[in-house]
Amino acid sequence: MLRIYQNTYRRTARKAVVYSTKVACCNHSTLCNITSQSRRSGAGAHWEQHSKRNNRSHEEFLLGGNQARGWTIPPHSRGYGMFVVRILKGALKLRYIVLGGAIGGGVSLSKKYEDWKEGLPDLKWLEDALPQGERWSQFSRNLIEVGSVVKNAIDIDPRLKQLGEDKMSEWRSWFDNRLDDAIEAADYQGTQIVETKEDIKAKTTVAALGIPADESRKKYDKLQSQVETLQTEIMNVQIKYQKELEKMEKENRELRQQYLILKTNKKTTAKKIKKSLIDMYSEVLDELSGYDTGYTMADHLPRVVVVGDQSSGKTSVLESIAKARIFPRGSGEMMTRAPVKVTLAEGPYHVAQFRDSDREYDLTKESDLADLRREVEFRMRASVRGGKTVSNEVIAMTVKGPGLQRMVLVDLPGIISTMTVDMASDTKDSIHQMTKHYMSNPNAIILCIQDGSVDAERSNVTDLVMQCDPLGRRTIFVLTKVDLAEELADPERIRKILSGKLFPMKALGYYAVVTGRGRKDDSIDAIRQYEEDFFKNSKLFHRRGVIMPHQVTSRNLSLAVSDRFWKMVRETIEQQADAFKATRFNLETEWKNNFPRLRESGRDELFDKAKGEILDEVVTLSQISAKKWDDALTAKLWEKLSNYVFENVYLPAAQSDSFNTMVDIKLRQWAEQALPAKSVEAGWEALQQEFISLMERAKKAHDHDNVFDQLKSAVVDEAIRRHSWEDKAIDMLRVIQLNTLEDRFVHDKTEWDQAVKFLENSVTNKLEQTDETLSQMFGPGPWSRLAHWQSLTQDQQKRRSVKGELDKILKNDVKHLPTLSYDELTTVRKNLQRDNVEVDTDYIRQTWFPVYRKHFLQQSLQRAKDCRKAYYLYTQQGTECEISCSDVVLFWRIQQVIKVTGNALRQQVINREARRLDKEIKAVLDEFSDDEEKKAHLLTGKRVQLAEELIKVRQIQEKLEEFINSLNQEK
Predict the structure, then answer these.
(1) Phi and psi for 46 in degrees, rounded to 5?
(2) Are the C-beta atoms of 451 and 481 separated by less than 8 Å?
(3) What strands, in cross-sheet order, belong to the sheet with 407-411?
(4) Is the dihedral angle over the CA atoms 641, 645, 649, 652 positive or is it negative?
(5) Phi and psi (nearest 5°) for 390?
């Protein structure tokens, strides 16, 4: 209102200024006389006439102009002066009206606001829920510090930063416009307030104690509903801002991800070079190593297989070819425990790199060599599982360097003849099977290593090689340690070995090398120099015809192996590619016949699809209606609490002299100790049950894919196992439950009827359970025995006899105590003895317990029926009512506790626990996505296996075709 007055005042003053400029050239003293005379116009008629004469004279003066001063006013400007005076006069009056109205309106609004604020309910509980004072200030400072740290820590691309700033400025302008519109709307609505002070008081004043109870109860309920409405609104606001915060965090993550992708693409583009032939071929072999090992086509591509006895120098030969000491060493200990695939390629720098790692080891630095050897040893030991000594898991690495011959070698564990105590029992057989498996490839080049310093007859490898390649068309024989052999063995014997006349095994070529002087710290250059010096000075060369020069040194061996490798590749690669084409065609045909309307989806794609479906079900969980949650939580709570209520509260109180006092004691102990934890357990089980039911309903959908069922079940089970309810929920529930149990008076007839119905249903269910117990104890009735041809056991006959005597006691004393006296026990036992039934007192007590329970429950059910229409007497007489309805009041209190507990649990489920369960499920899915064995175990079936095999064969065939094209271009 004040703002409206101010705007009106400004517009009027603005008009006065505009009109006053039209007579700015008038004489200043004359204008002052005019305004002063106009103010005296209300003094009397005399002054009025005098004023009129003066006004006319002044008008004539103004209209006529002032010839002496040289200015005149045109005739059509007559009347402007008086018009300006009137406007100024109105403006001066309006100023006081505006100020008075603003002050009066402000006072009136202030009083209305105070009256309205007095009628509001107490909202001090918000002070505990929200941080205030120093806590809020500290939280704000911490948040600002975190923001500054994050801002300084993240290096954002300038383009992304500019895009974010543009979006922020756009959002800020939109928010300012919306804020201005809201303020104008509030100002406009402020003028519509017409309620009086009496109306506000009538709406907000709470009834005094002298008002009747019904009216007080209605107003109390009204205020309570208002409080609940405010709580709901506050909670909705919190949820809204939480969602907005999560949305902004998600957008921030997406921007960060896009930035990293751009950054990675830049790096990749900068480093991307054309792959060499050997690298492409090595990738094909890597794909094959992950393929089904039972499929024989996986072994038909050429590679160099290094085999030999343990400690024969296999690894040293491979290191000499690679020109680096890349493998760990041990004194007589088995070091090679798994196949090691080494791809040799020529490059400007001497480096090594594992297939699954980005680190490059500089082989010219001793520190990197040591790290590489440690990593190889670690991978070998990590590949051995389950108490095994050797493993079939391939360790793949690439070695590049100047002058290296391009080839792919596989170093296998050495063949042993005797096992030590620390080896697994199947170590010898495992090594033999692994060696035969690699050598049985018809296109594999066998590099057979023989120790020249030991007797040739002690060799185990030559027999295996002869079995796999009897004609020697793909075997190259290498005699190591010839420097020691020259001193220990007969030169003639060495000549026979290198000419292929000592062993029945045949080979393409025979070579002699020196792999070192037995020193671990010798470098490859030192070993090669020692080798060259040895062969230059060796007496084997001084005798004509003993050894050809091309049969010695590691360099000649490397050239020969590389030449044979590429010759084998060119001869067989086309044939292998055609074989994979045929395999792909067969697999595609099988897929079309079995799954014509489905796409070939591998495990990774299926896992991503299942992940989306599971997360969609979690979203559906948050959309369940409040009523459904209340029903589920109420049912689960009573299921958890009913047994305690009957066994520990209701029955003990009924057996005591003061029912209400015992009930109060029992209920308070229960609420302080076990009830909150049991309630949380019931809430968690209800949440679990609803989520599982959603998953089961999803299975019945027409588009359901049962290939995901096992994976979904495993994810849900694991997430539920990890999830736990918040600890602070127990303390909150304890306070709510204690406050609810303090109310001992049923307020209206509706609640009374609901409590009676609740009591009847609960007692009826207990009666059914008791009847089942009695049926098992006493056996079937006569009609059931006749219909099902059953008979009573001896124990059941005894029980029936005891029951007959106990029924007589209850018939004579309807209000009998829950225990039997000594005299009653003696009487029952003697009466049974007359009928030749021998039982002891414990047997009688065991029979008495279910019999008395049924008797008590039947009486309780009858009391509930009597109290159904006794609400009027209860309101008038209270606890002194003629009809004892304490049972109804007890179950009403239990019912109220269940209601408030269910409501609190529902809010926790919707606001907190469903979101926390979602996070647990996402964490489990992320773990499963990185575990290939887990995915293979959970995603099974013919469809998955066929799709995986088809996808793998396609990848191998594509890489083979790419390699063949590059190979043909090189030719």
Answers:
(1) -60, -50
(2) yes
(3) 361-362, 351-354, 395-401, 340-346, 407-411, 304-308, 445-451, 475-480, 509-512
(4) negative
(5) -125, 160
The 10s digit of each residue's pLDDT in 209-241 is 344 556 767 776 777 777 677 766 776 666 666
Measured N-to-C along each axis, helices 794-812 and 749-778 cross at an angle, to the nearest 10 degrees, of: 140
Q: Which of 571, 700, 5 is nearest to 300 (CA)?
A: 571
Fill in the amino acid letter for 154: I
Instruction: Report pLDDT for 763.
Output: 92
Integer angstrom CA distances of residue 922 from 716, 861, 929: 10, 51, 10
Query: 304: buried, middle or exposed (CB in 10 Å: 19+, 13-18, 0-12)?
Result: buried
Beta bridge partners of 307: 448
Q: CA of 516: how far to CAs of 365, 558, 872, in Å?
A: 20, 17, 110
In 3D space, the residue among 726, 720, 670 whose CA is nearest the CA of residue 898 turns out to be 670
In what helix (H) or strand (E) does residue 343 lie, and over which residues does it extend?
strand 340-346
CB atoms within 10 A of CB 739: 12
pLDDT tens digits, 878-907: 666 667 788 889 999 999 999 999 999 998
What's the rounded Cα separation, in Å, for the pair 262 and 670?
61
- What would the DSSP string read from start to end of 160-218? HHHHHHHHHHHHHHHHHHHHHHHHHHHHHHHTT----HHHHHHHHPPPPTTS-HHHHHH
Spatial distance between the Cα atoms of 116 and 135, rounded to a whole number of angstroms: 30
DSSP for residue 789: T
Does the pLDDT of residue 127 top 50, yes or no? Answer: yes
Q: What are phi and psi of 476, to 5 degrees?
A: -120, 120
Residue with tokens 């393409």: 508
97, 420, 660, 662, 669 from 666: Cα distances, Å: 72, 71, 10, 6, 5
Residue-wise pLDDT for 575-594, tens only, equals 888 888 888 899 889 999 99
Confidence of residue 637 (pLDDT cuts 50, 70, 90): very high
Residue 228 token pair: 């609940």
pLDDT exceeds 80 at position 134: no
**pLDDT (average), residues 427-440:** 87
Compute the distance between CA of residue 606 and CA of residue 402 in angstroms, rounded to an integer: 45
Percentage above 90 pLDDT, the chain: 8
Across the range 386-398, mean pLDDT stands at 83
Closest listed residue to residue 641, CA positions, set 693, 680, 692: 680
d(Cα 437, Cα 955) in Å, to the nearest integer?
Answer: 24
Alpha-helical runs (H) found in 602-708: 603-621, 626-644, 651-655, 659-672, 675-699
Give one DSSP letter per residue of 230-296, joined into a string: HHHHHHHHHHHHHHHHHHHHHHHHHHHHHHHHHHHHHHHHHH--PPPHHHHHHHHHHHHHTS-TT-G
Q: How open is the CA angle 711-714-719, to the nearest 5 degrees? A: 125
Rounded Cα gap, residues 799 and 805, in angstroms: 10
Which residues share a beta bridge with 510?
A: 477
CB-CB contact of 606 with 707 (8 Å): yes
Q: Which residue has the higher pLDDT, 111 or 125?
A: 111
From residue 610, give the alpha-carbon distance in Å to each of 605, 607, 706, 715, 718.
9, 5, 10, 10, 15
Report CA Rg, the chain.
50
- Binned at pLDDT 50, 70 and 90, residue 51 comes out as very low
Lowest mean pLDDT among 325-329, 650-654, 762-766, 851-855: 325-329
